[in-house]
User: Fold this.
Amino acid sequence: MNLYRVDLLARAARDVDRIVAWLTKRSPVGARRWVSALDSAMARLGEDPLSFALIPEKVRVSFDVRNILFKTPKGRVYRAIFTVIGNEVRILRVRRPGQRPIRGRDLPKP
Assistant:
């Protein structure tokens, strides 16, 4: 049972759209598996988001920024960057392997 509501904010939704489009061109099955991995990560966030670590980057924002790592069946590690406000988890960005570290300007206001 989820104790927290999980929302994908607009920039994170665009990240997801770009990742899924890229994966779909290469492997529609792989894209579906990636979406399933993201869905599982979001379900885990709905249960206990505060158990996940603060992001390692030193960003200058006025709120805590955490991340959850999730893997595809092929072992590629992605991460969802989020904040918790009350009983809501707001996913701010979704990052693929190899992307540069996140900066404060990369994050929308929650």
